[in-house]
Structures
1.
Amino acid sequence: MSPRSNTRLSVGRTDASFVSPSARTAQSTVVLQDLRASTGTTGTMTTLDSFINADFTESYASLAPRLALVASQVETKTNLMGLDQKGNPTVSYMYLSIPRPREQWFQQPPPPPAPQPPDTVYYKLDSSMSEAVWDKINRTSIASIPVDPKDFFHADGEKRLACKKDVPIIRNMMVFFTLPQVSDVEYARKQVIDLPLSVNEELVFPMVLGPQRYRMENAEWLHQSFGRPLFGRINEAETTYLNWRNTPAGQLASVANGLSPFTRFDINLRSIKSLNLLHLVTEMVVAFEVETRSGQPPRFPWIESCKSTSTSSSFTEAQAPSL
């Protein structure tokens, strides 16, 4: 999906237009949106407008103080948002598991002491939230998945993003469906399937000082498609996604590129249901490929999961290639 332009984003009550925020420039975009919200006699945009509309035939001595004031306010906002000295961007992969309640499985596993199906190795959405997601799927074939910063961040990066990273921006998303039988996986992979995606207009960008909330008003950004989803057995989401990402189709994918992962994603699963596959799914895994930068503490004191610690991490990252 190609980058978009003429995007409208609302910050509080202030509407703002900006040129397509790719993953590489999204951090700067967030800064600019906050600056655009700074109105009033001392607001940054008021100062900037004053400078842009200045009479440039004036002397340098007259213009220099105005430019210095704008530069100072931009630098201050950048520092407050924790985007200074963040180093090179890296690509990280987050796999969010939404397991189907066992009592809803089409083929029930035998009761203990018989061997039980293995548990997922990926970070699981809160159990009550997972039940709510699957309840709506069963009723409407729509998966409404709310993603919160606590689902992405952990103090030591256990199955999630380390809290010293911030402003994760999506490069690509994909959906993986766990099926219990090899024959079902093989059948599903041969089908022509398209999964429409709707992104909620309310987006949250995490900053050190707290969540920054924006409203995306461009429908092209909010209504996209995954195309053919991925299928496999339990705990194959990561390898399947990375292998697919190296295919011609995968290399071109950029679903939700430039958006924050912290919003609600509505995925239309009716095409899977029409192929008589949806009732066989035991787990849905949403793969997030995000670009972020590393910083130093403080580590998001307002995110509860950034206050706890662990001893292991399953979150992988790499240097960010160009899109």
2.
Amino acid sequence: MSGMDWWSLPGPRRFLDGVLERRARHGVVAVSAPAGLAGLNDALAARLREADAIRPEVAEDGADVRSPAHLLGARAGARLGIRSVEDLVRAPELDGRTFVVHGIDPARWRRWQLFVSEFRRAKLEPGLGPRLLVVVPGGLRPEETAGVFGPAAVAKWLGYISRIDTETWAASLAAAPTGLIPRMARAASVELSGWNRGLLEALLGLDDELQFDPRGVLEAAAAEGVGGRATCWEDGLVDVWEDDVRVDTLALLATRRCEEVAKRIWRGHVRVLFPFLDDVRTAIVRRHLPALSRLVSPATPWSRPPSANYPTPPVRIDPFQLELPEIRMVGGHLLSGNEVHLCRKGNALRAMMAHLDPAPLAKVQELADLGKPPTSGFPRRRLAGTGRGAGSA
């Protein structure tokens, strides 16, 4: 595992930067995040320390009986005279300091709501006096939070994780996969995980064969993983990923929406398999291009075999437009046994996946065992005047 911090990924970093931008504009910010967003408080403190070169004051409400103003003043080590919100805002030793408040019980939100309202009224300018970040408790209505802090001062964690973030985090946790099955397994794990960091880390701990189609493992873990949580954003089971509202995979399984889980695995598989099949097709055509060009080309019409499904007038196409079965039709006599099997098995596998079902592992293994046809080699710089590659004999 690398030393990369998840909060340094582009999406989480953008969220933290947005909190700081709101702090600069408003001085008081609501941080709204779903349950289970690991490391949020530490990440806020670290980003503030990086920006201000001074340690922020992080306070957990817990069951403290003191007033919020007294609690924060004592947390910062301010003079004992702080008894009111105005005392806190005007204290010279707190100028420029930032308070981060978290762990507020929803039952105790009312007193913090009043404190925030008074704090906002007491501040003369956003940049003067102490600043306040409040990680609001779950269950608050968005309009309630906006009414207390102001709509522009609410930083809500929603849609900040992108596919790039997920793939980057996966690459930081495990070596880049090589080979068709490991690459398809990694793609399936990314697609299943989406924005869910914990699920991604768990899937990457499986071997390639289980990662390839982990529905059995996930079904066994779904009930425990979801627990009694509702399928909603507040409980950490819904977010936005790839510009779409996305329900957590374990929540889908817990509610028996198995077809959607299968489709996610399918999406992961096709992201790797279809380009692989196209590489196979292109490599075979390139290897036999001179002979294929004499059989089919823009200048040489070719008639597909008769079919009841579509008319078969002669076509004038470039050999690189031939699909895998058409390569066999046109130039089957040119192909090696391995190339024939690649065309046949590759086309059969692609047809299977037209129904949005995950690829069968055994069929992919057969294709992987055949391997890709050899290419023309890695391009090398030409030596001036020789027409030969720099490394050629």
3.
Amino acid sequence: MSSTGSDGEEARGLIGIWTWHLGTNLVIACDRVCEHIDVPPEQGLHGIKLERFIAAIHSADRAALVASTRAAMDGRDTFAADYRIRSALHGICWVRSIGRCFRNAEGRLSHISGYLTHMDEPPSPPPEKSREEVEADLVDHLVHARDLAGDLGHDMLRRLIEATLLEAAHAIAGRLKRSETE
């Protein structure tokens, strides 16, 4: 067998599958998922406590995962969540978990099954802009909108945008004046 697995699952990013049985609060996971959460495969195949599974998830990512899972449990039935897991063998890596809720004949949730895949680290959100930067963007957009309205021959719209631009400039000037006196 090659290092990519018998059918190339590593090449596609698939790590493996898991099932959480709500009645027993046990998670059953395949060998590769166990490898990524530092659980011996024989334990994972027989079930580990949910808390042990969650312990491998980066603490900063747990709340979002819980919220996504809760939404699925409350009726959406499917979920997808991106988070980091810690492993002695693999270090910290980003994964995507895709899962589905299953219900018994009475409609009560019985278990959630899903799979894990590797993913690239998501891009960092852009740094928050200062109030001055946001105001400058607003003025730039209003000027652009005014020019577009004029280019298209919408004279009334151009005048309305000019009035809005004038009001925005007045509000910004008032804020600047107040901040100088404080």
4.
Amino acid sequence: MTATRRDPEAAASIEAAWRDGDQIGDAKSARHLGWLLYERGDLEGALEAFQRGDQRGDPECASRLGFMLRARGDHKGADAAFRRAQAGWRHGDAEAAYHIGEGLFMDGDLAGALAAWEYADEQGSAVAARRIGQYLSEERGHDDAMPRDAVGAASAFKRADERGDADGACNVGYALEKKGDIAGARSAFERAVDRGHDHAPFGLARMLEKLGDLVGAESALRMGIQRTEHLSSMNLWSPLYDLAKFLERHGDLDGAEAALRQAAEREAPSASFMLKRFLERNHRE
């Protein structure tokens, strides 16, 4: 579970509601409180919350409890908690089934993970549908570039998109772009952008450029650069290069040079070489 940015007052109100629910014996409130405390680093508090949720029959609390007990070296207690989780997720909610599926996947139980995700997907989980799509779109093997099930993956991403998932919308956009449906891909990428997807602005920029909206395309590229700035140290290709190429294609050589110089200042891979080639190609000093 990933921490979500919230207004401080709203976050305090949500936490208070979870604590109130936990006090009156609500299992899901104990689950969410456990996650909150875990993210804060309050491992004792989280452990106790998951224990309460487990005692109330919540399978995800049992699963989380299992991981925490395993980390503490209590393998007997962890195994018992995992058995309770695996026995109960089919009677739980979609959120619980999805997270249990993630735990099973990390433990190498692919069949169990898929079963849990499929159950969550059937219950309307957007993240479970997305996860199924990601799995089905992976290559079948290291020497086989074909996806496991391209049709199944597309269907899963479509379900995720329809349920409001950003990654699902972005993958629908990629599929429509590949089919040549530029208008449809644009709409899908716009949905993903509106939902906060980091990389969707680049797909949107490609579609807007093809549709002749150069102002919109440049704006989308700059948005993508801003959204992915925190990932720059992990990438071999800087998105500033995409902006530079776009500006050069459309005659804004000053803007392109500025983008490449910015990449060089950030010590992006090959930035100095690309800047040098750009200056030579365009006879600029």
